[in-house]
Amino acid sequence: MENEMKKLIYLDNAATTKTAPEVVEAMLPYFSEKFGNPSSVYRFASGNKEVISEQRDVIAGVLGARSNEIYFTAGGSESDNWALKAAAEAYADKGNHIITTKIEHHAILHTAEYLEKRGFEVTYLDVDEDGKIRLEELKRAIRPTTILISVMFANNEIGTIEPVREIGEIAHEHGILFHTDAVQAFGQVPIHVDECHIDMLSASGHKLNGPKGIGFLYIRKGVKIRSFVHGGAQERKRRAGTENVPGIVGLGTAVKRAAGTMKERSEKERELRDYLIGRVLKEIPYCRLNGHRTDRLPNNANFSFRFVEGEALLIMLDGKGICGSSGSACTSGSLDPSHVLLAIGLPHETAHGSLRLTLSEETTKEDLDYVVDSLKEIVGTLRNMSPLYEDFIKKGNK
Ligand SMILES: *Cc1c(COP(=O)(O)O)cnc(C)c1O
Questions:
Q1: Ligand 1 atom nearest 107 alpha carbon
Q2: Radius of gyration of the chain from Cα atoms?
Q3: What is the 3-state secondary structure (H, E, C) of 305-354?
Q4: Residue 205 Cβ < 6 Å to ligand 1
Q5: Which of 27, 192, 282, 352 could form a disulfide with 64 if both were Cys (CB 3.0 to 4.6 A apart)?
Q6: Residues recognised as catalytic
């Protein structure tokens, strides 16, 4: 009973975000009175074609791109799949080597593994203890046969922002395509595709207060890339299928909104994030922050608590109305610790005791105070049940 009375504190905004009310409102007419197929000739429907092209303009404007370089997809995973598979195929006559990292989202990692089975060679770059790739290692990995470099803009688990501009410069100098999975970063930090020499960029609506099942792939003009879905002439014949008009309107509205509030929102979130990090590190012993201290997404905090099991921690937080994540949503349910936490060098036990809290514009200091107080209590309870912790204390570590 007690739980039902509590306010829900949602700190899992890296998994998904709440669709903003004005986004829902903008979408609604496209389910009902404006339901026409944009490919139809009569004016009733063809107006929707213009509406779609307006959304393309909005997104292109935010990225410093051209409207005809924005291709709508069904989300981040599809964009990642498209970028890797289609570029690999289109450039196969030039080479068969792809470079990515060990900390990518599974939409990239599993696509890369698929390509390996099809004869491509993939180098998975290591990262340092903060989760950044080393530019020297990237340079050393480049071969005459390298056709694509794919490095995420910011990591979804530990929030670390990669040196994207430098990576883009290196790729550019070598005439290699550069793709970035910007699903977490887009809408949170400024991104300019020319400044960073980005040839392809993936983004997703539901990570920036837009709807689920819609995203886009930016493809620089001149990049040879195969069609991903064959059929009608939509998306300049590269991705067939009647457009998801409500989704596209929702995405465009969300992007405009995110770009407009970015500065203020990120300053506020950064301040609250640092308050949370400060309190946790100071008030809970045997705990560490994962990810880069400053080059990290404004809303991301990721901790490891020794002698604590992440899943147990999440369940007890849930009991207090707090939504967080351990590892990543996609790996929950499996017993393997997060590949990202292992890549930054955490031992298995420490990686298992991890908690990701990702803030939103609605998060308040009061929420975070309640979260830290709850965490202190829960971590204490779990440690008191842990034989490893008991041993550790007996050995005089108090
Ligand atoms: C969420 C996420 C994806 C997948 O996006 P969907 O729209 O859910 O398919 C890909 N990459 C990263 C970094 C993500 O955080």
A1: 10
A2: 22
A3: ECCCCHHHHHHHHHHCCEECECCCCCCCCCCCCCHHHHHCCCCHHHHHCE
A4: no
A5: 192
A6: 330
Report yes or no: 36 and 162 within 8 Å, Cβ to Cβ. no
In angstroms, the Cα distances linking 291 to 42, 211, 353, 356 are 53, 28, 15, 11
User: pLDDT tens digit string along 190-216?
Assistant: 999 999 999 999 999 999 999 999 999
Of the candidates 216, 196, 192, which has an alpha carbon nearest to the alpha carbon of residue 206? 216
**Among 12, 8, 97, 5, residue whose Cα is nearest residue 300:** 12
Share of the chain above pLDDT 70, in %: 96
Distance between Cα 398 and ligand 1 center (Å): 42
Which residue type occupies 13?
Answer: N
Query: Whose alpha carbon is nearest atom 5 of ligand 1?
Result: 76
User: Is residue 105 within 6 Å of ligand 1 at its C-beta?
Assistant: yes
Q: Report the C-alpha dihedral over residues 141, 147, 151, 152, rounded to 10 degrees.
A: -170
Distances (CA, A) of 145 to 91, 93, 121, 255, 398: 10, 9, 10, 37, 55
Ligand 1 binding pocket includes 183 (Cβ within 6 Å): yes
| Ligand 1 atom 8 nearest Cα | 76
Length in residues, the chain: 398
The separation between CA 11 and the C-alpha centre of its own chain, rounded to angstroms, equals: 15
Q: What's the token pair of residue 333? A: 């349910």
Nearest atom in ligand 1 to 75's CA: 7
Q: What's residue 327's pLDDT?
A: 66
Q: What is the DSSP letter of 8?
A: P
pLDDT tens, position by position, 153-174: 999 999 999 999 999 999 999 9
Say how many Å lie between the CA of residue 183 and the centre of ligand 1.
Answer: 6
- Determine the residue of 77, 111, 180, 201 to mutate for testing ligand 1's pocket, defined as the one with the most ligand atoms within 8 A of the Cβ atom: 77
The pLDDT of 354-361, averaged and rounded, is 97
Ligand 1 proximity of 70 Cβ (cutoff 6 Å): no
**β-strand partners of 303:** 289, 355
